[in-house]
């Protein structure tokens, strides 16, 4: 993305994550910060670095006429602007295409909000969205309260969707407004579960150990030491598993689904005879989808190739790998480190 300039008026996670992915791919990303810096700087240095590497920083007071004028100078020589704020703040600060097109007809303006640019200002934090879209209700064991994933799945997913929308509009060659909201992204990611309800009236159920609603066995299992994720989606996997585990019967996917409890009882009993690590070592070479449950530190230790250095920070690198291209990971910018960009933009 060399030669592409993207402006970011981002807060905390969703917006900054979207533009960081684009910066990793070579775009020039200019982070527009308020006086004193973006609020996530107060969370901690490693937090800020994890979402803002490879960017430049320019401080503008967008509440002032001077700040908006200087923003217009940057917009005139940029390809896109991405912002994640409440809709009323986006409009008040003039961060929409209608407000900025006078500087650049081809500017792409991406608004990331909770419920859409015209959806109102109700608070839309990640966990609130997970609760509102059914994610929490379908997560956890049936007898337990609803639960939430241990990371910001709505914010991160919306960042990915916003980056895709931004790129699509740039490729189109037209300027315009792109509207991406957390609620719609999470509902979109419930694709087949939503389709089952909309077309067949089937409401999602919670099963013990996070079991899949269609495939059996496909869930977590307790072993002699640790938990194991086993995901058997078709009969070939099942046959290979049975040969290694010494199990007979239930040869078809349909029979295993019909006799879920019987299958799980047999599989649970045999998996309890060995450790999760040993089962992974035994089953992986057979091509069976399986993994021992690891902590984050264990997962990072097992995949050192994903860890990169960005100045003094060790971070997880870009998940997008392009043949012939290697990101140059740079540390996050200091507040207003690149303030002279505005002076040289006209």
UniProtKB/TrEMBL annotation:
Domain of life: Bacteria
Protein keywords: Transferase
Protein name: CoA-transferase III family protein
Membrane-spanning parts: none
Example of a GO MF term: CoA-transferase activity
Segments forming a coiled coil: none
UniProt-listed PANTHER family: SUCCINATE--HYDROXYMETHYLGLUTARATE COA-TRANSFERASE
Name of a matching Pfam family: CoA_transf_3
InterPro entries referenced in this protein's UniProt entry, alphabetically: CoA-transferase_III_domain, CoA-Trfase_fam_III, CoA-Trfase_III_dom3_sf, CoA-Trfase_III_dom_1_sf
């Amino acid at each position: 993305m060399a030669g592409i300039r993207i402006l970011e008026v981002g807060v905390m996670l969703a917006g900054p994550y979207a533009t960081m992915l684009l910066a990793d791919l070579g775009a020039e990303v200019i982070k527009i910060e308020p006086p004193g810096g973006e609020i996530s700087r107060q969370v901690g240095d490693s937090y800020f670095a994890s979402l803002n590497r490879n960017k430049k920083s320019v401080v503008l007071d967008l509440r002032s006429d001077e700040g908006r004028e200087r923003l217009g100078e940057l917009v005139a020589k940029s390809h896109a602007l991405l912002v994640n704020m409440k809709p009323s703040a986006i409009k008040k600060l003039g961060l929409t295409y209608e407000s900025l097109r006078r500087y650049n007809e081809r500017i792409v303006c991406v608004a990331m909000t909770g419920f859409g640019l015209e959806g109102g200002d109700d608070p839309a934090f990640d966990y609130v969205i997970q609760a509102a879209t059914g994610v929490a209700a379908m997560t956890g064991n049936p007898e337990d309260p609803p639960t939430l994933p241990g990371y910001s799945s709505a914010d991160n997913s919306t960042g990915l969707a916003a980056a895709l929308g931004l790129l699509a509009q740039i490729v189109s060659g037209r300027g315009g407004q792109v509207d991406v909201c957390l609620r719609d992204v999470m509902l979109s990611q419930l694709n087949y579960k939503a389709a089952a309800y909309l077309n067949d009236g089937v409401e999602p159920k919670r099963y013990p150990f996070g079991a899949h609603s269609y495939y059996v066995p496909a869930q977590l299992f307790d072993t002699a030491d640790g938990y194991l994720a086993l995901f058997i989606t078709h009969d070939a996997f099942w046959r290979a598993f049975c040969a290694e585990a010494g199990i007979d019967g239930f040869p078809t996917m349909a029979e295993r689904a019909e006799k879920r409890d019987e299958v799980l009882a047999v599989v649970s009993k045999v998996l309890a005879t060995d450790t999760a690590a040993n089962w992974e070592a035994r089953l992986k070479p057979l091509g069976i989808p399986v993994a021992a449950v690891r902590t984050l530190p264990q997962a990072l230790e097992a995949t050192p190739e994903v860890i990169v250095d960005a100045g003094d920070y060790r971070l997880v690198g870009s998940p997008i790998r392009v043949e012939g291209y290697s990101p140059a990971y740079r540390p996050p910018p200091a507040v207003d480190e690149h303030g002279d960009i505005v002076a040289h933009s006209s």
